[in-house]
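Risk mitigation, structural track. In case the binding assays with 6-O-phosphono-alpha-D-fructofuranose fail to produce interpretable data, a predicted complex structure has been prepared as a fallback.
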Amino acid sequence: MVQPTTLGEFIVENQRDFPFATGELSQLLTSIRLAAKVVNREINKAGLADILGAMGSENVQGEAQQKLDIMANDTFMRALRSMGQVCGVASEEEEHFVAFDDDIHSDARYVVLMDPLDGSSNIDVNVSVGTIFSIYRRTTPAESAVELKDFLQPGDAQIAAGYVVYGSSTMLVYTTGNGVNGFTLDPSIGVFCLSHPDMQIPQDGKIYSVNEGNYVHFPEGVKRYIKYCQEFDKATNRPYTSRYIGSLVSDFHRNLIKGGVYLYPTGTMAPKGKLRLLYECNPLAFIVEQAGGMATDGTRRIMEIAPDELHQRVPCFIGSPRMVETAHAFLRKYEN
Ligand code: P6P
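Fallback model:
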């Protein structure tokens, strides 16, 4: 039996994709890999270990912090701090960025932005959740204190991005700008193995993912696109299938493999959209573009948007390019 390539082997074999990293990215991804295994273990036993449920606190988004949210945040923070490559981390669970400003991090060159456990409201009902991460080189000089502007970089400046989906199996999917590769955790040996080499999103699809409970609050163009998806038209394979898990990483991952479009538009409850630019939309946009897909805010590429603030929200249309383009046509036609 041919031994599958492990994530560690893959990173080393593809180190040449990262010439200036001299092994640093390998170590950074290794720390993420380790944290993902720990979070996976805790999620799998959450129901038994009294770590389900809310902490009784709220995060900066005003969302009830789940015990596993905090566990995941602390696990990734600890893993990233343990490596000397990272000088700071921004997280959905932290109001401000966290600077690693001790001696061993003084010449660190990378910052990481992450949503340590996305979709955590689904945890108590055993629906899959995920971790999303984005990696940049710092823009301020080494040896100096990391600054907010090191984190407020457009998505096009990312040097790596990825996600972990804790589902029926646990997968880590990432890109360093040379394609997208997926690794499945083999729990019997605790190793991520290459299972989805060179992932490419289908250029068109039949799945649309949107919370239709917000329909009345959507812009007219979004409403018209949703009706377009629901109309019968044999020639264009419609009606499409509506699939919405309510866990961004899971909805994105399914559409990446099967083809489809995920929409989180503006609406009354979310005047700027709900998804965060820096640690949800940008990393997934990097991945989807590397896999041949599209990611926009309805008009601009997500990765062109110049961030103003750490927890900035943007509307998001992401997935198969033909489907995103069709949605754009409705937005343009019915823009008020
Ligand atoms: P709604 C989870 O909080 C999240 O950010 C994504 O994982 C998910 O796709 C979205 O929110 C669900 O939001 O408003 O449809 O419940």
